[in-house]
Design a protein that fits this description.
Elements: H1 2-11, E1 14-17, E2 36-42, E3 48-56, E4 66-73, E5 87-91, E6 100-109, E7 116-122, E8 133-134, E9 136-137, E10 147-149, E11 152-154, E12 158-159, E13 161-165, H2 169-181, H3 191-217
Length: 218
C-alpha cells in the first residue's frame, strides 16, 4: 500500500497525454535518417524537470542512438527553426522493451509555467528496419499541444508523453485537491468532503488489520 501511495504522489507532479492506441505502428513512422517526431506542450507548473516518452520498438533490438531534445517555442504553431535547445540527451535503445516508458531528467526550469515547449526525437544514424518510434493516438485529445513530423504540424495526432515538475509534497497535494474539486457540484467541490472520505477509508483499513491480527493471535 505504501508503494502505491508513493507512486500516486509522484504521479501528481506530472501532466501530459497518457492515451496510447498505436500499439502496432506502421513501419513508415520509424524514426530514422532526417525524420524527426515532436510534441509541443504547455507547462502547467514552474520547475519543469522531466520528460517521459513511450517508445515502441517493433519487437526487435534497435542499435542506433536516439536523441531527445527540449526546446522553448515562441510561436506554438510554428516549428522552432535554429533555436538553441534547453536540453539535449542521447541514449542507445538496444535494451528498450516494446511499449516501455523512458524518463529524461534535466535541471529544473524555475519559470516554466505557462510556456510552450517542444519535445523532439530523432535518430539520424538509424536505418529502415533498425529504428524505434513513439506511442501515440490518431486523434486530437491534447488541446495544449500538437505533433510535428519533422517541421510540419499535424494537429490530428498526439504522442503519448508525460512532463513532470520538481514539486514539494504540499504542492502535489494542492494539485490533487484542485483536480478533485475543480468544476464539481455540491459537496464534490469541497476538499473537506474528500478529507472525510479518506479518513474513513484509513479507519476501515486499520480496523480490518486489527481484526485480522486478533484472529491470528487466538
Amino acid at each position: 500500500m505504501g508503494l502505491i501511495l508513493v507512486s500516486m504522489l509522484n504521479r501528481l507532479g506530472c501532466d501530459g497525454q497518457y492515451i496510447n492506441y498505436n500499439t502496432v505502428p506502421n513501419e513508415q513512422v520509424q524514426i530514422w535518417d532526417d525524420f524527426i517526431v515532436g510534441q509541443s506542450f504547455v507547462a502547467q507548473q514552474n520547475n519543469l524537470n522531466q520528460i517521459d516518452l513511450l517508445f515502441l520498438t517493433y519487437w526487435r533490438t534497435n542499435t542506433e542512438d536516439v536523441t531527445v531534445t527540449l526546446t522553448e517555442m515562441s510561436d506554438p504553431n510554428r516549428y522552432p527553426e535554429d533555436v538553441p535547445p534547453i536540453h539535449r540527451t542521447s541514449f542507445n535503445p538496444a535494451t528498450l522493451q516494446n511499449e516501455s516508458w523512458r524518463s529524461f531528467t534535466f535541471p529544473h526550469i524555475s519559470d516554466s509555467q505557462g510556456k510552450t515547449y517542444l519535445i523532439t526525437v530523432q535518430s539520424p544514424n538509424s536505418v529502415d528496419g533498425n529504428a524505434v518510434t513513439l506511442g501515440g493516438i490518431d486523434a486530437d485529445v491534447y488541446p495544449m499541444g500538437i505533433v510535428f513530423l519533422t517541421n510540419i504540424p499535424v494537429p490530428s495526432q498526439e504522442l503519448t508523453f508525460r512532463v513532470c515538475y520538481a514539486l514539494t509534497t504540499v504542492q502535489k497535494l494542492e494539485r490533487l485537491a484542485h483536480r478533485l474539486t475543480d468544476n464539481r457540484p455540491s459537496a464534490w467541490g469541497e476538499i473537506s468532503f474528500y478529507i472525510i472520505l479518506f479518513s474513513l477509508y484509513v479507519l476501515l483499513v486499520v480496523l480490518f488489520f486489527w481484526q485480522l491480527v486478533k484472529t491470528l493471535l487466538r
